[in-house]
Design goal:
By secondary structure, the chain is mainly alpha-helical. Helix content is 72%, strand content 0%.
Length: 361
Amino acid sequence: MSLYLIIFGISTFLFWIGSKQKSKWNLFALLAIILPCYLAAQRGIGIGTDTETYYNLYEQCSGPYEWEYLSLRFNVEPSYFLISKLSSYITGFSSLSFIYQVITIGFIYLSAWEFRKYINLWLVILMYFCFMYSASLNIVRQCAAVSILLYGSTFLVKSKIKLFWLFVLTGTFVHTSCAIASCFIYAIYYISFRLVRFKQIGIGLYLIGLGILLIGFLKLASLLGFLGFGRMAIYADVYAVSRSSYVSVTEITYRFFFAVMIWIGCNYGIISNRIKLPYYLLFITEVSLMMLGMYNGYLVRLAAYMTVYQLFLIPMLCKSPKYAKSSAPIASAIIVITALAYWWWTIVHNGTHEVIPYYFN
């Protein structure tokens, strides 16, 4: 696992230097992106939960089949088909892994650059490495869609709604779950920043909707299957047969810990109170989606669309004009230790060899 820590450290340091440059596409930032992407590309075919499945899909997509046939048989989005075709002309499956990681880290970096006045960009990236990088080696399509939706949501802050939906459409071509997640994100944005007269009613209706989602998901999954989101229906059906449920106590505990940190930050004026409502709606949504694991362990993956916002909101605690000169580094150190502790506990202690690149063994 030391290889990961070395790459994480070098890349984070390069992002720190790159964030001080005038242009976002500077040499340091590009090198910082390439390193973890190259690491992802070196992953063996037989390692990880989904890698072998993705390789089989890659072989089908890079073959003589048309996308329409693959879409009906394997539920393949058009982006995976196109990237597989492109990768087959470069180095094969390793190029596909590299490209998807470039998309994921690239859009997270672009999102962080937009808000670099309020957050430490390098800390956002480090939190990505600790909380999402390992997952991105498995669920490559969804993590790419997560980062695309994240970047699209930066346009909501600028009230450029059409651009937001354009990126939602782009993300849906990468992974269909993006369409579902975008509804949550837009609802949270609308309730928090656009709804004025009936805000309390809006919050209440949103929470009721989450409750219905949790209680009646099996029926909702059947509807999703009818509308073309077949994977969700499949996962729910698997639960009905095998009861393969999974809810992570560690993940939920960390989310409550972060919620307490944000509460302290808002109440002591470290960060703006405007963050409080959207954050807590994101927090409740994330935990609710994690609880979908009681139907099937795969369904907790939907929570990744909310988790990515933690990468931005938590680092805001470390860059505030309210701090004394020595307080900001201490706050950053606490976040770094917390993130690394999570990575060690979930990946090193409780994890397996599945995240170690095969070709380096």
